[in-house]
Design brief:
mainly alpha, about 90% helix, rod-shaped, about 0% strand
């Protein structure tokens, strides 16, 4: 799946690494969005068509980067959610085993 590819490409092996990576992605996402907004304001003030086109091209490139960063943040969230669900299932399974052992001991 995409999440597994994401973990492999970014060499993420632990939950701590995942959360650290997500924090970096969030910071970079914020920086890119600020840059894009600055360029948008600059484009609105610019009258020259050539300069406006150059700014539009820059905005488009940054928007592509932002989309990639948003996808990475989503992968981090999805993986964390899956991990918590797996942990919960494991705890439920352990609880069932303990209850089963108690039931067998009482017989």
């Amino acid at each position: 799946s995409n999440e597994i590819k994401f973990l492999s490409i970014n060499k993420i092996k632990t939950t701590q690494e995942l959360f650290s990576y997500k924090k970096l992605v969030a910071e970079e996402l914020g920086n890119q969005m600020k840059t894009r907004n600055t360029l948008r304001r600059k484009r609105q003030k610019t009258k020259e068509p050539e300069e406006r086109q150059k700014l539009c091209d820059e905005i488009l490139e940054i928007s592509k980067k932002i989309q990639v960063l948003k996808n990475e943040a989503k992968y981090c969230d999805d993986i964390a959610k899956i991990k918590s669900n797996i942990k919960e299932m494991q705890e439920n399974e352990k609880q069932k085993e303990l209850e089963k052992e108690k039931g067998e001991k009482q017989r």
